[in-house]
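Q: Could you write out the predicted structure for this multi-component system? I'm mainly interested in how the pieces pack against one another.
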Amino acid sequence: MSGEIPLWEVFIRPRNGLAHKHVGSIHAADEVMALQAARDVYTRRGEGTSIWVVPSAAITASDPDQAAENFEPTADKIYRHPTFYDIPEEVGHM
Amino acid sequence: MALADALLELADDHLVLGHRVSEWCGHAPMLEEDLAMPNMALDLIGTARSLYSRAGELEGKGRDEDDLAYFRGERDYRNILLVERPNGDFAQTMLRQLYFAAFMEPYWTAALESPDEAVRGIAGKAVKEMAYHVRHAGEWVIRLGDGTEESARRMAEAVEELHPYTGELFDEGTGDAALPSRASMRDEWEATLKNIFAQALLDWPGEVVPMAGGRHGNHGEQLGHMLAEMQSLARAHPGVTW
């Protein structure tokens, strides 16, 4: 039965000022039911102040077969990390 | 004291319905509802606990929430018959929830003005929970009513089965000046229900033969079975805690 019910990805924003974060997925017949299911499954312990649901089918994912060409070339480009200058003590935490 | 008795009636409504809804735990048709049902059950049982505690306090005989929930027999329970109706299928469970929550939401809204501070506190929490129950159950009723041939048939059967029990929602029972008039909730209740029924393509029932008696302790046979199960542990091991 659940095979016929669309899958949705659930994103929760824990507090104002933070970004929505992917927390999992649920089955629901439509977007209204998806929001309710997300609320019931993922916010039972006060986790959220806002919920997004997105049809899983609407997400385009990178191909695991292309992982090497996508991600490995960055491994030796340490100069892209902002760690090559000193921050004066007075500036404090950045 | 009238307020203690009136709160006991309300508490019994909430505990009995909460227990009924909790019976779905582990049996719901999908995982999402298997969490949603206990969520709703716990809302109701939480409200029942607060109501029993306040009722026991006002009564002044030293009875706490557990005494009132576990050590009163079927004839002492004062819940309306609607809430003790067996779960039936998902259509019946959702319609029963909608009938009840669509009554309690305006009731608790009115109770926010109660002179009793404990009642105001209970109302403040419950009114948000009931708003969600109306939405959750309402969306299901709409989708089942306007769904497949089978779901529409079962939804219509649920209306036929449960509608006669709705009249008792509006009986004043013991009543108390510190609580809202139950009869005055009828217009808002009907407006909520008729709006949802229209979307669900369900006919609003005409005159039905009303079923009542719970407020006087006259229950259907199913309540005794439910209480026997619910109370067995506390009665076998008085004072037991987790």
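A: Regarding packing and overall arrangement: Helices of chain A lie at 31-42, 67-71.
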